[in-house]
Design brief:
This protein is mainly α. It has 14 helices and two strands; from the N terminus they run H-H-H-H-H-H-H-H-H-H-E-E-H-H-H-H. It has three domains: 41 residues, no CATH class; 139 residues, Helix Hairpins (Orthogonal Bundle), CATH 1.10.287.4070; 126 residues, no CATH class. The protein has a two-stranded antiparallel ribbon.
Length: 325
């Protein structure tokens, strides 16, 4: 395999021209291979191919879900801007029942609290109690003084209905995909090793394995970092010393999930929390610098526990807190 960036930068070596055509591309690729600018392609086993496919599918539907949520929030900002003061989370069951029954403020003007409670019963079971009556009273009060747009109400309600139906459909699909991911992970022994790291959930584990493949093929965590494009790059010349940045030449999805997994571990894993605090207080690093340093630590841990066939043990991660990260 030859990196496309290699051929793009080497195509002017022979004729000093930016022209591009099929014969020239073939010559450039052959020249790169003859000089050793290539890497061996290793085909992953079937279970890792399945995992990569399902994670790619999940990424697409997550993007669709976020887009739908943004559309619904935009609809509420225009038609019922007071709604978030009643329901902070509009995706909760009571809120969804409200949006299906009383999407516009004018739909609530002639209703009393008991009418709202009765309408909720169509979509959910436990609707009463002090919380239910309080929410119903707040909803009616906000609706009576709402400043939302009232024009073309029927078309707006039809639009919201379609958005909610599509959002619920996508949510159901994502739940099924997560169940399928759980089944796939149960077929990969190393996934159980990775999940012994407190805070590394099934989605992070699946995303990392989908991006890296079989971790037994790596000799060091630096190879994982390079595959994700998290290796450092510097541009310096003469007396000028350029800023050191991430190369970002690698799998962007793997890079994203390694970053998110590390942030999650800093919040939930005592080992990574202590390492992060040590970097901030003793080494005087900035927060982002510490996070990216801990990404390297995580990569080395992942490769290490798989290579040794061990579970994650905090005692082996750091000998003492002064030798952090």
């Amino acid at each position: 395999m030859v990196n496309p960036a290699t051929t793009k930068r080497n195509k002017e070596n022979r004729d000093n021209s930016p022209s591009k055509n099929d014969p020239k591309d073939a010559l450039t690729i052959a020249d790169s291979v003859s000089r050793g600018f290539y890497y061996e392609y290793t085909r992953q086993s079937l279970v890792f191919q399945r995992l990569k496919t399902i994670m790619s599918d999940r990424e697409f539907w997550v993007t669709c879900s976020v887009r739908l949520q943004n559309r619904i929030v935009c609809w509420l900002d225009i038609r019922f801007p007071e709604y978030p003061s009643v329901f902070k989370d509009w995706t909760c069951k009571r809120s969804m029942a409200t949006l299906k029954t009383f999407p516009c403020p004018q739909d609530l003007e002639n209703y009393i609290v008991h009418d709202v409670i009765d309408a909720w019963r169509v979509h959910m079971q436990r609707v009463g109690g002090s919380t239910g009556f309080e929410k119903a009273a707040q909803l009616i009060a906000r609706a009576k003084c709402s400043v939302g747009e009232q024009a073309a109400a029927e078309e707006a309600k039809a639009d919201l209905k379609r958005l909610i139906e599509e959002f619920e459909r996508v949510t159901t699909m994502l739940e099924q995909i997560e169940r399928d991911i759980e089944v796939l992970l149960s077929e990969i022994p190393m996934a159980q090793q990775l999940r012994t790291i407190k805070g590394l959930g099934k989605i992070f584990t699946a995303a990392i394995l989908a991006g890296t493949g079989d971790l037994r093929q790596y000799a060091h965590g630096r190879q994982v970092m390079r595959k994700a494009g998290l290796n450092l790059a510097e541009s310096s010349s003469g007396r000028r010393k350029g800023q050191i940045v991430l190369s970002k030449r690698g799998d962007s999805a793997l890079r994203k999930y390694l970053y998110l997994a590390t942030v999650q571990l800093v919040w939930n894993n005592p080992v990574f929390r202590h390492l992060h605090e040590h970097n901030l207080q003793e080494k005087k690093m900035k927060k982002q610098q510490s996070i990216f340093k801990l990404i390297g630590k995580l990569a080395r841990i992942l490769v290490g526990i798989v290579q040794r066939g061990e579970k994650f043990t905090p005692e082996k991660t750091v000998l003492n807190w002064t030798e952090a990260a």
